[in-house]
């Protein structure tokens, strides 16, 4: 009996090790590539631990920009800035509008509530490819192409439904008694919501914030089609251009990829408790 | 009371958002401008010049800014990305760009749809008389000139002379059969991994290479009457057989060709893994002699001719690119100034000196200063007599896509040549009417 | 005057109906403002042909839809997308359950191992595609290096150089990124199973395998159904992988639907057929969405 337990333990550790390898190895290789010199990376047989660790690639991509508009360094920095601005603004607006709507859909009884919920759910499923050309035509007619604000509005259209959906499921889980108690004290509905309900759903708020940020940060398709200029291009677009424009420059691409992945990955890693609750709430409980 | 608070908080949030987004915008729009007087700004969308490893176009664009006070945003992307951006931009009548790439295969389509501005009123006699007539011709349609060439992109056959010498081969191959034999010898002696690698990746570069192969086997996808006629087209069948056998049976063509683009092909050649470069851009000669980028310094040579089935079918590809002004541009005058600057003879010579690009001005080919730096241009001269361009047809993009997709199926052996050709014909039939 | 308005707003705020409308209005305005008009516009486009020279849209009835089904490349991408979707979803879910079962055991560093599961999920899909493209590189890629050094393959291969291997390489890249999401959700569902259930199963004489089928699976089943539907919806819309990894090649072997629609519209300027194909995708996703809603709503109520 005891031996079989030991065997089981060993098996679990072995499998866990394989899982860690499977999940981490590809990303670690990306990170190692970004810390290598080109000469080391292109040797065969390949050395798995680069003999010369260097941060020059990061220096080049982050501080190598000059006053030009087409070199990799300046492209990257401006894209980094654009990505941050767009993601933060979208997150802020989506949270503000979304929480109010979520409250209404979760707590208030009014005609049209159900169709509204359905709308919120269904619009998340519309493939962007079905909207892209009309949006393109409208935006070019209105001279809104290559503009951060247009991108912000478009991103809102899919981040907002998601925020509403998740927040609604959080709010629905809070017992109605808590709100009623506040109401007896003479609070108006909205006030009870803002001062009592919202503070106790902070974990939901945190999850939603992170989701909204990651969604807008990682978005590629709209950005690809709507932005070409320095003032509007986001990080995902710029790093794909590295891989085509600089053709064989695997190092620059890896470096850009690592930097672009850091904000979402770090956020997700440090706030994973919230994300877990968000995932289960948003996806499964509805 | 509450309502007041509520509205106040809305105002506050909006305000905060505006501040956040506001600073972002001002920081990016301030970039480069600095002074407050009104400056004209143009946006230029061009693919990166394949030989420009030193930021030459960028540097010259800044110089142009200094001299004229016109601000320029130069956007560089890969050719295929630029192509996607520009076609949809033109089709939807947007006005994001003032100067755009005009590829030699787009002229008919862009001109018939009135997407670009005829340049007749802008150009002076100097350009008309001084620029290579073949180039101007390529960018004219129904008597109007639509683009000024900025990249005289003609390709040449280069080879690794040192490796050929080491194998005891005295002369570079003149025919495709010789190329195969020499590759085999080089491979048997362990001098190279493969004879050559081609960029056949599913993209425009793949189409270019296939077009080159068909030309140099004496064939063409499109017959004299503008029809795609491939059945029993002997030269084409030979060209495809040659590639297919070379990739799968004789194995002297690197199988990675199927997914390679120009950069990969250059990488492999510069590493010394192959001996022949079928269609190298002129500047590759310099790159190959740059110890930072190449392991074959001093080893390569330009052949006096490019291989064909026989001498008469020897061909090199010319893929010139021009700058054009979209009809929708609101800064046509400034756009023209930029084009004029970037195509002037002075600029053209500097470009040749700094990045080894071929000139667009006829008499620069006899310029003693340039010939002193690029003595091998005289070999280019012999090859360029055989230069041929791509097809300029209205449905080129669809056609090119069909050929790319079906050809790879043939080359991988997924489809017989006969069936593959039938597939090309039937797929092309939908839109070639 | 202002007093009066404020008073009216304050009153309005306590009526469910008025407050409800007031609160959802801005959100719906943004969402429908961006989506509704383009959605209808492209429906119109799918029945029209664009005349670029004269900038007009001419109504041509069902022509685009008929043309679409005669287009062998569309049929090809439809087939590929179906295969891609089915294989990725099955692989993600079975692998996801397997990993979740391991991570549900007690062992040291379990928190850490569970923690890194979040990494592929958070990684931008663009970075994922770039990463795998580099790993699959025919000349310098890590996969080639690994397999040759382990003597599994004799010489370097071009993994993306053959339609079937390219498609499977793409499927693998997608499975790698999407599986952890399944793991996390299944783990959450597993944590709801009390040890008692297993105990009683054990008393009934069930072995581990039977316990999995009788106890575990029924409890995680609802989660799996919902995941399968959602994963299918996302898989059908996959764009980044063909765009970056393969460009749809070789020989159209990885030309997933989204990518082919993108090509038809942006490269060939066939706006009409692009729109009709996009409506095909939309139709399929809507059917799946209805299934999703059906599973979510208990007693006919979407909570």
TrEMBL record, chain A:
An example Gene Ontology biological process: transmembrane transport
Coiled coil: none
Top-level taxon in the UniProt lineage: Bacteria
Transmembrane feature ranges: 12-32, 84-105, 117-137, 149-171, 192-214, 251-271
Record localization: Cell membrane
UniProt xrefs under SUPFAM superfamilies: MetI-like
CDD domains in the cross-refs: TM_PBP2 (cd06261)
Keywords: Cell membrane, Membrane, Transmembrane, Transmembrane helix, Transport
Example of a GO cellular component annotation carried by this entry: plasma membrane
Domain ABC transmembrane type-1: 80-271
Membrane topology listed for this record: Multi-pass membrane protein
Record family assignment: Belongs to the binding-protein-dependent transport system permease family.
UniProt xrefs under PANTHER family: INNER MEMBRANE ABC TRANSPORTER PERMEASE PROTEIN YCJP (PTHR32243:SF18), MALTOSE TRANSPORT SYSTEM PERMEASE-RELATED (PTHR32243)
Protein name per the record: Carbohydrate ABC transporter permease
TrEMBL record, chain C:
Localization, UniProt: Cell membrane
Pfam families the record matches: BPD_transp_1 (PF00528)
Membrane topology: Multi-pass membrane protein
Main location: membrane
The organism's place on the tree of life at top rank: Bacteria
Residue ranges constituting the ABC transmembrane type-1 domain according to the UniProt record: 78-292
Keywords of the record: Cell membrane, Membrane, Transmembrane, Transmembrane helix, Transport
TM regions (residue ranges): 21-40, 80-103, 115-135, 219-237, 243-262, 274-293
A GO cellular component entry from the record: plasma membrane
Example GO BP: transmembrane transport
Family the entry assigns: Belongs to the binding-protein-dependent transport system permease family.
Protein name: Sugar ABC transporter permease
